Amino acid sequence: MTASLDLPVVDAALAESVRVGMETIESRLREAVQQADQLADTASRHLVEAGGKRIRPMLTLLAANLGDASRPEVLEAGVVVELTHLASLYHDDVMDSADQRRGAAAAHLVWGNQVAILVGDLLFARASRVVAGLGPEAVDIQAATFERLCLGQMHETVGPTPADDPIAHYLQVLGDKTGSLIATAGRFGAMFGGCDAATVEIMVRYGELVGVAFQLADDVIDLSSAGRVSGKVQGTDLREGVPTLPTLLVRQAAAQGDAAAAQIVTMLDGDLSEDARLAETIEALNEHKVMDAARDEAARWAQDAVTTLDPLPESAAKTALRQFAEAVVDRTR
Questions:
Q1: Contacts of 283 (CB under 8 A, 6+ apart)
Q2: Could you tell me the pTM of the whole model?
Q3: 308 Cβ partners below 8 Å, 6+ apart?
Q4: For residues 294 and 288, what is the distance between their CA atoms, to the nearest angstrom?
Q5: Would you call 105 helix, strand, or coil by DSSP?
Q6: Hey, what domains does the chain have and what are their CATH numbers?
Q7: For residue range 180-210, what is the model confidence (pLDDT) as tens digits?
Q8: 21, 39, 196, 214: most buried, per Cβ within 10 A?
């Protein structure tokens, strides 16, 4: 089983339900990516076999436990959201010119950009076939989620206009690229677990907030000691010039007259291809108050997600969902 976050589920019955569900989803996920064509099969299995946190199907299972998690549709929904996520990663790595994904070489470096994009398309197609078995409402939700994923990638690629606030633009990108699918994971879990409409809507909002918090936490991890602990390659986004909350905050501080921030901006806009220069820039960022501000922002989104759960009656699943949101930001420390 591939674990999702270090989530301590205190309730033994819930922990067992999630463990068994994740094992089943993992097995079905590997079946779902199989292709008759040898090249397509090898490339499609590339990221599945590299592992991952599987936070989306984990959230689907936790949300389903607010109702009846034993329904077979719940497991299929977990496969759908993870397949969709995997498909998006093939495209993201081409767009971002990433060298690695989950400790393995990015697919586009192994097979080229065109094959990587087509494999992503194949996996989106497989996700569509699985979701078709869940009914027309699920298909509509999946299509709307895919639309937001595409819009988020497009807006990230184009960047903010001069009239846009860069940080607000960035948060919207995160909502579309990350929050939308995590929200769908929560929605599917509650929906196929037989929860009422009010609970489903709570899980949609919760998932959106947790998704943004997760990515904001990753922004910090990419630059901090937590990145070394987690095995992430530090400064990847920095070197590629990809905007993140710490860099946006330091640019904002520089524009407001912060001399130390202005010096960091000069470093950011310089040549970061050399490891020593990149390390120096990372160190300067970590010494600036913007890193604490970025951590605080991630924590605020996670806390908002926890607060969203307030109308739900107390249960083991609700407690686990609180822990899920908290675990997202605990990774930064």
A1: none
A2: 0.91
A3: 202, 205, 206, 209
A4: 11
A5: strand
A6: 11-150+179-195 (1.10.600.10), 197-309+318-333 (1.10.600.10)
A7: 999 999 999 999 999 999 999 999 999 999 9
A8: 214
